[in-house]
Amino acid sequence: MHRSIARLVRLDIYVPRRQFYRNKSYYLSEKWLKEPFDIGYPESSSHIKEDSKLLRQKLFPTKTLTEYDYFKQDSNREFRIEEWNQLDTDQMFKYQEMVDDAKPQYVHPKPQYVTGFELFKIELQFNRNEKKYWAMLDGNDREAYNDSEIVRHLYNERIRIWMGYEIVEYLKRNLPKYMFNPYPLLGLYPWEIIKDKLYFKRDVYDFEKDYYDTLIKETFGRNSQRKALQIYYTDILHDTETDNLYYAKVEKMFNSLPPYKKQYYVEKERKRQEHAKKTRLRSYKQKTPYLKFLIQFSKTYNPTYEELNAFDANVSDNNIRKLAISKAAGREWKNLTEEQKKQYESDGTLSSNTRLYKEMILDWKVEMVMDYIYEVGGVSGLQSSHNWRKDMHEKTSGYRYLKKMYVDKLVYLQNGNVVVSKD
């Protein structure tokens, strides 16, 4: 639509002037995000750090005042212990109210330190049959839930995450300026926020509440494939106060850019195209007979020139080859008989209904969002050489992140048996 309008404008045919057109069915976000993304991690401004410190002191005080403390503060003259002892019930009630009013009000209960079966229930995250599954564990697996340095460390992580989300709740109720992106103040890591959001039983296209919701939506939507002109438009939209940004004007401004600046946006477009292809090439893959066949097929099959030339030239040579092999393997697999397909079955087949498989899907989606943030858009204050995978490995110490907690093992059911995976 906007292209036809721009053409009419160039031909001096009058049409009502319109702003740069956004088709919401195509551009999924209400507001395109300026790059590099300002997520506040790992670098944040000094005022963010100060706000974070004050918030923590307010919500998680190391010392709470008693009725006695408030009485001393309330005295305008030299304090005498006899006066405290002579307070009647009504006078004491005043100070009790002051204590109650000063107590932080939490939305979620503070995690308790537990071991054994109670810890197993928390990490299992099921709502039924916990005793049955606990009984199915062998002695060594049950022993791992007893008090230990690892159990205490993982409890401290649950406390840290709980505190972070309590700050979110406070900010969204009391400080509207942090409504769109409260997370720099939390002490939560990006991969934790992303995975917690993805845990909701809804499609990724349903997201759009705050900064990370928009990033998730852009990662998997066609919005991630914005062309150079749209990316340029986002930048000038955030850098100018004028609202007279009509398509023809934006196009003219873009075409008048110096070659090196225009190349910057062309490169941004290329990265988006590359990332969009990657989101359709899931690296985790279920351990199915077809996957076993695909692995063997990939070792011997060489795509023809015609097969390679059938894909978008903007895609890297490596990904074009993978796509061509995958397409050829699919054709070959369909031609196999059922008996031939059974040759690729094994005991290692993983059902898509298992918790492990579902976690693999979520971990892959987290990886795609993190790649989109750090490699496609970039992060304020960071060099492009920053390796988020290395950073995450160092911060997590190899533990697996589930819903608002870390675990050193994943318990799931497969073929009626309890499996404890420490991978």
From TrEMBL:
<dbReference type="InterPro" id="IPR036910">
    <property type="entry name" value="HMG_box_dom_sf"/>
</dbReference>
<dbReference type="GO" id="GO:0005634">
    <property type="term" value="C:nucleus"/>
</dbReference>
<dbReference type="GO" id="GO:0003677">
    <property type="term" value="F:DNA binding"/>
</dbReference>
<feature type="DNA-binding region" description="HMG box">
    <location>
        <begin position="286"/>
        <end position="365"/>
    </location>
</feature>
<keyword id="KW-0238">DNA-binding</keyword>
<keyword id="KW-0539">Nucleus</keyword>
<protein>
    <recommendedName>
        <fullName>HMG box domain-containing protein</fullName>
    </recommendedName>
</protein>
<feature type="domain" description="HMG box">
    <location>
        <begin position="286"/>
        <end position="365"/>
    </location>
</feature>
<dbReference type="InterPro" id="IPR009071">
    <property type="entry name" value="HMG_box_dom"/>
</dbReference>
